[in-house]
Amino acid sequence: MKALPNHTCPLCGKPNDCAAAKSGRLDIDCWCQHTQIDPESLALVPENLRHKACLCRECAAKAPAADNEHV
Questions:
Q1: What is the reported pTM?
Q2: Digits of tens for pLDDT over the chain (71 positions)?
Q3: In DSSP terms, which residues pair with 8 in a beta bridge?
Q4: DSSP H/E element including 39
Q5: Per residue in 22-41, is it b (16+ CB within 10 Å) or e — as a string?
Q6: For 60, how many CA atoms within 13 A lie in the half-sphere containing its CB?
């Protein structure tokens, strides 16, 4: 299965630095595999982008404030 080429964070629109999206492969190492992702941030990902676009490091670390959302 190929990785989707989604290179921006679905919460803030910044680059997500996703190694899988850059390479098109799911079998490579990525920063997110070594980071605890905030569950509140994951809950904010729009349904149509869940499991299709990765968060950036900043949004993965903690849920963004409601007034900073660009969704």
A1: 0.78
A2: 788 899 999 999 999 999 999 999 999 999 989 989 999 999 999 999 998 999 999 999 976 555 444 44
A3: 15
A4: helix 39-44
A5: eeeeeeeebebeeeeebeeb
A6: 19
